[in-house]
Amino acid sequence: MPIDVSRTGRTGYEVRSLLAEQDGILLEIATSSAIVAFFGPGKPLEVEQLEAALTRIAGTRDADRATAGAAMPPLPAPGPGVMTPREAYFAATEVVPADAAAGRISADALAAYPPGIPNIVPGETITAETVAFLQAVAASPIGYVRGALDSAVSAFRVIA
Length: 160
Fold this sequence. Notes:
alpha+beta
């Protein structure tokens, strides 16, 4: 169950840590603005305990505190598709630095995790917003970009 915690003034990473440290509640995943609770078989649902802990955390928000990492760029719109994924897969490619990738056609599928849904597909034009988003995800504490050439998303494989 995903829970948006952005209005608490804390990142999902901070809320996840507070829940573990103060309440013994362990969560599946955290992002800059959300937490994910997993309710599975063999464990009683303690929704009331989670709700009470989240209410307490939201009530202890420091209004003057600027949360580092909470300003994750918004999810970017897809770039225009120029080629089919098949055409892009078989096309000649080159690697360019991230700051030169905007406006170029991606040769790879890149997916920010979490959640792991592709943000760029082969044949799609890379936008500056998508570059910024993927780099922000990669820089977050548990962020990972599947398909990236390196962990910082500092370069992109594009159609030559």
